[in-house]
Amino acid sequence: MKSVAEKLRMFQRKLSLNLSSPSVSIRNFQxxxxxxxxxxxxxxxxxxxxxxxxxxxxxxxxxxxxxIQLIAAAVSTANPPLNALxxxxxxxxxxxxxxxxxxxxxxxxxxFNPNTGNPFVLxxxxxxxxxxxxxxxxxxxxxxxxQWVSRPDFPGGxxxxxxxxxxxxxxxxxxxxxxxxxxxxxxxxxxNLVVGNDVRMCVYRGLLREAxxxxxxELNAALDYCxxxxxxxxxxxxxxxxxxxxxxxxxx
Length: 252
Description:
Layout: H1 4-20, H2 45-60, H3 64-76, H4 87-94, H5 101-111, H6 119-135, H7 139-149, H8 162-174, H9 178-190, H10 197-209, H11 213-228, H12 233-251
PPR repeats: 161-195
Pfam families: PPR_1
Protein name: Pentatricopeptide repeat-containing protein
């Protein structure tokens, strides 16, 4: 049985042939990311170089499914450093798509692969996606990404990554989507994740822009109370309860 590295080499060669010859259909060649479980061997420098050469060509020629399959298989191979792969090129191209079909194809392929179905792989990629959504002016896509990460079946439970949620809150506040920022903030508070001053100020200023002055002051006071440690666990619960009331009143 061929190793993953051998299959990737074959995939790269066939992709190169297909892209240079219009008479050969690239869609006739498929690779399953589950093949990554067959070998723990990592990619060679030459294979990484080849992947970095093929993926941009796939993206520019609109062969997104094949680009996703190649990236998913590469990430599944002994988990190479994400920054060694052309993920940013693929993600920037996918950000131009009208829906999240291709995004979910990649994320779910990684999620249900035993080699990559963990937050150490999924959250950095999800963070790259939401950053691209905000940069391209598609904040509603970031809402769906937050919902995907918050699903009960997300590997490892709620992601313990304050940086990921900070990107979401900052983007939602800058997009005028304060209610969505509060929902992310509420999740952080319920999981006792570290809330930096920049995140606090982002939410505070967002509430002020919405003329919700009393709520902004009340939330700020509750967070100060927690930061001092005066209330212990009660302080954290107080913040969550306050956010629940704010969210409920917002959607009424």
